[in-house]
């Protein structure tokens, strides 16, 4: 892939500063306010599978399908034996699912087109994780194979501080479970919580982190193809990580880009429309994601606005406040011609990025120190509460003996001796869960109360950089390029008649996080959630599965 000139003033960047695009006013109809909690049916169907051979089920119709067995089976493409997932806690004779026996489900973290993601606590090691469970059971062998590919892709990614860490995967009762490290939330949630554009320092930090994550992928010939704020996760120490590798393509893999599927149209590189899949597409999507969070700007899904952003014309009403260095980086990432677009290596070599990285190191070191201090503080508070509780009984007994009124006792939800527990998570003990342990009402506070970062338990601490809020709205990749935009109320931006800032109006997702509104008999958020989970994702693949069965 050609590398742009070394000088930031060279060809790809000579268009900066970008002139005020008069035609943006004509594109007025193309922009709309961002709806905070996106509709749960805002999903993109997977592409039809490429059928190169007859499915096994047709060749051997009587062959028993191992995946339809009720027993759990670990899913790994490194060690492909179909063994039960390893856990000393799991007892096959009990009849309960592997998940129920080995995890405590705490709250729902989010939902995409593939799965619902839950915060869980492992009963084996006491640590907190995220578990993504597929929203619908396998419809057939080919559907299963498609879903299992996400595991293979996660395994290919390997370990990197700026990529979401994969722990393990298993299938049971025709559902796929993916266990990953737990993060505080997505960049989308963070940006929605933040009223306005994210400050430049944060934007530089995010840029550095994500460029390193992307370099890790690109060095391994992997294309993410679905980079967007909803697929960027922020750890509890404020590190940004690329996640959701469901659409990832291995350039040197057997499938190559033949199976490639474009992601969310708002972040999609223009050349993908011509079927050109390359690393440059990821750089473009990263640029779009940064533009969105840096300018608090709604990105169009289609229409004139969509086209203009892909012709290198950035709305100056939004970008005028950005630091000039960052604007240049952004313009290099959003270069319309993928052959002239900046590569990750080139971007990382820029003096502005290197300078930002130095700052990043400093802030990360500060974060780590602060984290340790807070851990020690939390431990001391916990110790003092234990000692106080221990002393409380004899003191109360003594006061009773003396005929005085008893001191008020600690409430039943006082801090648990378990370091990994919170008073909120303890409300959801195993007894409170139904047959399906995923069917728990979301606890909006639980995610804030305890977490694991790199195996270390910290209680009740927020990353100072992060205002996390578990969003139950879907963050799915949209289904298709909508031909028309819903015209919603425009934000009060007198100087920007054509492009909207992100609306601060509260979303439906906030409502849905309230246990009182979401606690249905099924345990899921509401009927809409249920309905949307059964939306036909891809008629062709359903047809394929139906004929297969
Ligand atoms: N490890 C995690 N820690 C915290 N939150 C998470 C984690 N994984 C997922 N989430 C939340 O769940 C949402 C959906 O997760 P994810 O993107 O992996 O699902 P998906 O079904 O593959 O989505 P898509 O429709 O983009 O393919 C995320 O946007 C995020 O809000
Ligand atoms: Mg996603
Ligand atoms: Mg996905």
Features:
single chain, 549 residues, alpha+beta, Phosphorylase Kinase, domain 1, Transferase(Phosphotransferase), domain 1, 6-stranded antiparallel beta sheet, 3-stranded antiparallel beta sheet, 17 helices, 13 strands, 11% strand, globular, disordered N terminus, disordered C terminus, binds adenosine-5'-triphosphate, binds magnesium ion
What is the fold's blueprint, element by element?
Blueprint: H1 23-26, H2 56-59, E1 73-74, H3 98-102, E2 103-111, E3 115-122, E4 128-134, H4 141-157, E5 166-172, E6 175-181, E7 185-186, H5 187-193, H6 200-219, E8 222-223, E9 232-234, E10 240-242, E11 249-250, H7 279-295, H8 303-309, H9 316-319, H10 324-333, H11 344-349, H12 351-401, H13 446-449, E12 450-453, E13 456-459, H14 508-512, H15 515-518, H16 527-533, H17 539-548
Antiparallel strand pairs: 1-5, 2-3, 3-4, 4-6, 5-6, 7-9, 8-11, 9-10, 12-13
Helix pairs in contact: 6-7, 6-12, 7-10
One magnesium ion binds next to loops.
């Amino acid at each position: 892939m050609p590398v742009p000139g070394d000088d930031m003033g060279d060809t790809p960047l000579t268009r900066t500063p970008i002139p005020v695009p008069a035609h943006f006013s004509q594109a007025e109809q193309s922009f709309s306010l961002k709806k905070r909690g996106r509709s749960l049916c805002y999903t993109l169907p997977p592409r039809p599978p490429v059928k190169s051979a007859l499915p096994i089920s047709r060749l051997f119709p009587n062959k028993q399908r191992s995946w339809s067995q009720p027993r759990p089976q670990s899913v790994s493409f490194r060690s492909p034996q179909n063994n039960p997932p390893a856990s000393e806690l799991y007892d096959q004779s009990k009849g309960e699912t592997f998940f129920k026996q080995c995890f405590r489900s705490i709250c729902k973290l989010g939902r995409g087109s593939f799965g619902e993601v839950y915060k869980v606590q492992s009963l084996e090691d006491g640590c907190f994780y995220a578990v993504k469970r597929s929203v619908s059971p396998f419809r057939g062998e080919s559907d299963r194979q498609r879903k299992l590919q996400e595991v293979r892709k996660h395994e290919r990614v390997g370990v990197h501080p700026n990529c979401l860490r994969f722990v393990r995967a298993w299938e049971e009762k025709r559902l796929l479970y993916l266990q990953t490290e737990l993060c505080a939330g997505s960049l989308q949630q963070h940006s929605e919580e933040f009223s306005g554009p994210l400050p430049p320092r944060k934007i530089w930090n995010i840029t550095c982190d994500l460029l390193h994550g992307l370099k890790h992928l690109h060095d391994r010939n992997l294309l993410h193809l679905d980079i967007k704020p909803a697929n960027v996760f922020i750890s509890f120490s404020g590190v940004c990580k690329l996640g959701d590798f469901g659409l990832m393509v291995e350039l040197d893999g057997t499938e190559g880009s033949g199976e490639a599927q474009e992601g969310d149209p708002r972040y999609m590189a223009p050349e993908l429309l011509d079927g050109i899949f390359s690393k440059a597409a990821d750089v473009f999507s990263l640029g779009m994601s940064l533009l969105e969070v840096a300018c608090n700007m709604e990105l169009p899904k289609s229409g004139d606005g969509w086209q203009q952003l892909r012709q290198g014309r950035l709305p100056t009403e939004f970008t005028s406040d950005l630091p000039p260095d960052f604007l240049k980086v952004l313009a290099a990432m959003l270069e319309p011609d993928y052959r002239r677009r900046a590569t990750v290596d080139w971007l990382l070599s820029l003096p502005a990025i290197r300078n930002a990285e130095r700052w990043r190191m400093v802030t990360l070191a500060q974060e780590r120190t602060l984290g340790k201090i807070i851990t020690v503080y939390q431990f001391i508070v916990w110790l003092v509460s234990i000692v106080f509780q221990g002393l409380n009984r004899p003191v109360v007994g003594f006061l009773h003996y003396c005929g005085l009124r008893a001191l008020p006792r600690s409430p039943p939800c006082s801090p648990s001796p378990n370091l990994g527990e919170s008073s909120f998570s303890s409300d959801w003990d195993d007894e409170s869960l139904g047959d399906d342990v995923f069917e728990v009402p979301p606890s909006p506070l639980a995610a804030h109360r305890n977490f694991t970062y790199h195996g270390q338990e910290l209680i009740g601490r927020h990353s100072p950089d992060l205002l996390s809020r578990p969003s139950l709205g879907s963050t799915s990749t949209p289904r298709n390029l909508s031909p028309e935009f819903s015209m919603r109320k425009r934000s009060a931006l007198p100087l920007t008649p054509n492009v909207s800032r992100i609306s601060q109006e509260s979303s439906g997702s906030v409502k849905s996080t309230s246990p009182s509104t979401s606690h249905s008999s099924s345990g899921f958020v509401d009927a809409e959630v249920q309905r949307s989970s059964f939306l036909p994702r891809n008629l062709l693949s359903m047809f394929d599965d139906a004929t297969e069965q």
